[in-house]
Request: fold
Amino acid sequence: MEQDFVLQQDSELRFEVGDKPDDVSLRLLDGKAEIFGTELAPNKSYTFLSRAKVAVFTWHGCRLKLAGKTEGTYIAKETPMVMYLNTHGCLERLRRNAERDGRSNDAPEGSSRHARGPICMVVGPTDVGKSTLTRILLNYAVRFGRRPIYVDLDVGQGSLSIPGTLGAILVERAASVREGFSQEAPIIYNFGHKEPGFNITLYNILVHQIATTVHAKMASTRKVGVSGAIINTCGWVMDDGYKSLTHIAQSFEVDLILVLDQERLYNDLVQDIPFIKVVYLPKSGGVVTRTSHMRAVCRDVRIRNYFYGLKTKFHPHSFNIKYSVLKIYKIGAPDLPDSCMPCDMKIDDHRTKLVAVEPGVKLKHHLLALSAATEPANLLTS
Reply:
């Protein structure tokens, strides 16, 4: 089944892809259009991942051909894209100011005296479009010749690796419509859980480690430094989740926080961290609320794509290794009550304690991270 759609300016075509993504294709017949900030090439056929939620936006009007069976297909005339573009304009103005200040300071390449571009953080509850807004802002920055750093702290999604990880990557070209951003040479830290609350102490340690790495990268190269960074966060915004957001803002020395669709969170941040600019933005009407089952399916798909590939097919295989040369650790141990401790002795934080794990059946259906650490003491931050 094929359908032609004519979009007027400032409108978008929204649709969902089912379980057979190869049967769905999209072509731009006339005009200009983009998908989450990535420009579409004329007369090129685009395919999508299974269960993808797609929004094709046009600033000036276009004509599209959509082939295959899709769900929830409609044209929306009310979108927040003008506000998102204005947000990009504000970030670009800060980048130009940093460029101008850097030239006036005449700091040498690699100097910590670089004028730094904006570090922006996107926050909000689950299913409000944080990842989409992050992708749009990164794509717009690249289209303006910038090289921003993308930081993904959403361990439930793990867009740079697999769920349960945090990471950062230098973005040098716009995201692919199908595969997203190129994942060459990312910096990845394993957290090991799909929710930060499972071990918030470890999560905050890894956040601080990534922030240190990002600041070092921005200081090492002028173009990267003035381009800044954009941070995607988890949807946990209450209690310890809120404290984690303020910790992220402080660790990364954030200049701008974008709050999607929750006024209470916006007001709390304005009150608690007045030295950081906080902006409220509405979510897109095309955002789909996911059930816990849908989230689990998405995580499974990401893990499968990580091992078997998307555009380039991988061929994972098994090999044998002796238990005697394999050392496995988990981070975090049960909390001991004070009554079990000798007098005048305090136990180390059980949430960051290394516990040796014996290989066995209990590791079945678990993912293990291969560490670059040469000593157990370095496992937390390697």
Notes: The CA atoms of residues 14 and 286 lie 7 Å apart.
